[in-house]
Design brief:
Elements: H1 7-14, H2 21-33, E1 51-52, E2 58-61, H3 70-73, H4 81-92, E3 113-116, H5 130-146, E4 152-156, H6 158-170, E5 187-188, E6 194-198, H7 203-206, H8 213-230
Parallel strand pairs: 2-3, 2-4, 4-6
Antiparallel strand pairs: 1-3, 5-6
Helix pairs in contact: 4-8
Length: 231
């Protein structure tokens, strides 16, 4: 994999990736079988690139595309309830121009934020294996090469928290030893970006009350405050 001169050229190659046979088979099978509620839609069924503001100072890091969310719509956190929660909180903190994310071309624009994931294909049971994670990691490195202004990484879930630290370590950015444990509101100071933790806005967290809208809103406000403090 070679260096890229733009996020658009990077995205064009991301969507062509077929490096992980299990993920290719799964994402394409889901796109063919579809969910009944979306039976009349054409699923994306390919890897999903990150999106947002190329001059972003905030990186929002999830886990992987949802089978009937981003794997259907082709845009991260778009077309599912996790995205409803995420972009509502981002809009309240001034990182998005609208609180909804239904499909590509719906008018959503991010300001000072970039949304991405360590794994770009929908995995079975939302559980990519270690080889799939490692196969996908170069895409995140390439993204970070082009996102030169990132000052805060907001990790949605423990998987993102672990991957953020590992990626920064690989980039020669000093992270704490021992690594801080993940929880909602966790903070990890590094020699580069500040890492913040939030519970993932998945239904298993939002339906049970483990994550509330107020909790999610506050962590984005914390990200905004940290960015402004760093100038």
């Amino acid at each position: 994999m070679t260096g890229y001169h733009s996020l658009d050229s990077l995205a064009a190659d991301v969507v062509l990736c077929r490096r992980c046979p299990r993920l290719v088979a799964w994402r394409e099978a889901v796109a063919e079988e579809k969910r009944a509620a979306f039976s009349d839609e054409d699923y994306w069924g390919k890897p999903v690139p990150g999106f947002g503001d190329p001059e972003a100072r905030l990186l929002v890091l999830g886990l992987a595309p949802a089978a009937h969310g981003a794997n259907r719509t082709g845009r991260m956190f778009t077309g599912d309830r996790s995205g409803d929660w995420l972009f509502r909180a981002m809009s309240q903190a001034g990182f998005a121009n609208q609180p909804t994310s239904e499909h590509r071309g719906d008018g959503l624009e991010l300001s000072d934020a970039w949304v991405t994931a360590p794994v770009r294909c929908a995995p079975p049971d939302n559980k990519p294996n270690t080889e799939e994670r490692d196969n996908c990691r170069p895409w995140l490195h390439q993204e970070l090469d082009l996102l030169a202004d990132i000052q805060v990484i907001l990790c949605l879930g423990g998987y993102a928290w672990t991957n953020a630290h590992q990626v920064l370590d690989e980039r020669g950015i000093e992270t704490p030893t021992p690594r801080p444990g993940f929880t909602h509101g966790a903070r990890s100071g590094t020699s580069g970006p500040l890492i913040l933790g939030s519970y993932h806005p998945s239904q298993q967290n939002t339906f049970t009350g483990k994550l509330t809208e107020e909790m999610l809103r506050k962590v984005f406000e914390e990200a905004r405050t940290a960015i402004e403090a760093r100038g």
